[in-house]
Write a structure and sequence with these properties.
The complex is a heterodimer of chains A (293) and B (165).
Chain A lengths: L1 H25 L3 H8 L2 H13 L4 H6 L7 H11 L9 H27 L8 H14 L24 H4 L3 H14 L1 H11 L8 H17 L4 H7 L6 H22 L7 H16 L11
Helix pairs in contact in A: 2-3, 3-6, 3-12, 5-6, 7-9, 9-10, 9-11, 11-13
Chain B lengths: L2 H10 L3 E7 L7 H8 L13 E8 L2 E8 L18 E2 L15 E5 L10 H7 L10 E5 L8 H16 L1
Parallel strand pairs in B: 1-3, 1-4, 5-6
Antiparallel strand pairs in B: 2-3
The chains are: A mainly alpha (293), B alpha/beta (165).
């Protein structure tokens, strides 16, 4: 009750006068003050909040623009806030980078979502080739006898046709699996062989698909903002999403063997524990999660 | 009736808990069925490692639904979940001692697909007519659209009631 009352007064009254006072004292607007004080994700995050909660219609709109219009909107902000490009030369550059990060994050989610929504299609040659590529990367010395085969279980699919295992993650699940196997081949081989452990083993491919879901839902809930704002000085792309997925796969395997679960039946319990751990790391505004091998 | 006796009556009739095991082949739609029952989003489902559990309220019962992964590799673990099961949903397990007399409901899922076999054909294929030692029911449904799922659960509640009395 008291807190919400305070928030109401702060939002509607104090915030305005605080900003006015600071502006008179420093001769700078809130955006400029943020650039002076903060760096990295904290800077981008504060700029994003300042723009979103601004009462100025032009400023409110900029967090929702598309990447190609960023330059135009930076000029609009400078006009609106009376910022002299000669007196504050860095403003334009800093503002542009922040806007590219903010709009880029939103675009990345839309891109990832559109790939996820595409189901695996056996009639699509590209999909089939990608699936065969996964087999060859993971099993370089063993030939797959047939497209429909019990052998798929050796890399952790459930049945004799991997097609049915992609489900809610669509082709995104397969692209992630291939990306990890291609860019971290020796780690992938190591994790695959560990996943065949008689007691602590798990199904490599379907756990991979499950971790695609984790990466996807973290992106969707905006939990990846600090990480991506720190990690990518500009527009985050699919590549960065895949990189984060690789981090999850590598770290999950380590986590699983450290925890020594009684059996695979406890998977969801440990998955949730791991999920909480990652969410905790992502709350730190200096976070940048990279796979270190 | 005095207030006290009303209170006593309320206290003596707590929600009965029912344990339901959902078993079936991989990619049968068990998790989708579970999420449909709990009115959750079904668009992000991935294959189940281990199990999922959800509790739903239905007709005065608390249904604890266990959705166990269908992958061949983990089927040996199924028997760990057989203790105290009230309703069972697959035919292969009828000979399991721990599950004797447990009513069985077979969901003929994916009826939204044109290629789905009708419930009558499945009943014949599974020789359901030869089951004599328990009540059984086959229910066609689509976990995707939710059609038939509630009908199945109504049958569950009715038969648990009969069994427990």
């Amino acid at each position: 009750m008291f807190i919400s009352l305070w928030e109401f007064f702060y939002g509607h009254f104090f915030r305005f006068w605080m900003k006015w006072l600071l502006r008179q004292m420093t001769g700078k607007c809130e955006l400029q003050r943020i650039f002076d004080t903060y760096v990295g994700a904290q800077r981008t995050h504060r700029i994003e909040n300042s723009l979103t909660y601004s009462k100025n219609k032009v400023l409110q709109k900029v967090t929702r623009v598309v990447q190609s219009e960023v330059d135009k909107y930076v000029d609009d902000i400078m006009k609106e806030k009376n910022i002299n490009p000669e007196k504050d030369a860095s403003f334009k550059i800093c503002m542009k980078m922040c806007l590219l990060q903010i709009t880029g994050y939103k675009q990345l989610y839309l891109d990832v979502e559109s790939v996820r929504k595409r189901p695996y299609d056996s009639d699509n040659l590209q999909h089939e080739e990608l699936l065969m590529k996964l087999w060859n990367l993971l099993m370089p010395t063993k030939k797959l006898n047939a497209r429909i085969s019990k052998q798929w279980a050796e890399i952790g699919f459930q049945g004799d046709d991997p097609k049915t295992d992609f489900r809610g993650m669509g082709i995104l699940g397969l692209i992630n699996l291939v990306y990890f196997s291609e860019n971290y081949t020796s780690e992938a081989h190591q994790i695959l062989s560990r996943s065949n452990h008689p007691k602590l083993g798990y199904s490599y491919a379907i756990v991979g698909i499950n971790l695609t879901e984790m990466a996807y839902s973290l992106l969707k809930s905006e939990a990846l903002k600090f990480h991506l704002y720190n990690f990518v000085p500009g527009i985050p792309t699919m590549e960065h999403f895949h990189q984060f997925y690789c981090y999850l796969v590598y770290e999950f395997d380590k986590f699983w063997f450290e925890e020594e679960p009684e059996s695979i039946m406890y998977f969801n319990l440990y998955r949730e524990k791991f999920h909480e751990k990652i969410k905790g790391l992502l709350l730190d505004c200096n976070v940048a999660l990279t796979l270190k091998v | 009736m005095g207030l006290l006796s009303i209170l006593r009556k309320l206290k003596s009739a707590p929600d009965q808990e029912v344990r339901i095991l959902l078993l079936g082949l991989d990619n049968a739609g068990k998790t989708t069925l579970l999420k449909q029952l709990a009115s959750e989003d079904i668009s992000h489902i991935t294959p189940t490692q281990g199990f999922n559990i959800k509790s739903v309220q239905s007709q005065g019962f608390k249904l604890n639904v266990w959705d166990i992964g269908g992958q061949r590799k983990i089927r040996p673990y199924w028997k760990n979940y057989f203790e105290n099961t009230d309703i069972l949903e697959l035919a292969e397990l009828l000979e399991e001692e721990k599950l004797s007399c447990v009513p069985v409901l077979i969901f003929a899922n994916k009826q939204d697909l044109l290629t789905a076999a009708p419930a009558s054909e499945i009943a014949e294929g599974l020789n359901l007519h030869t089951i004599r030692d328990r009540v059984w029911q086959i229910q066609s449904c689509s976990a995707l659209t939710g059609e038939g799922v509630q009908d199945g659960m109504n049958w569950v509640c009715k038969n648990v009631n009969a069994k427990k009395k």
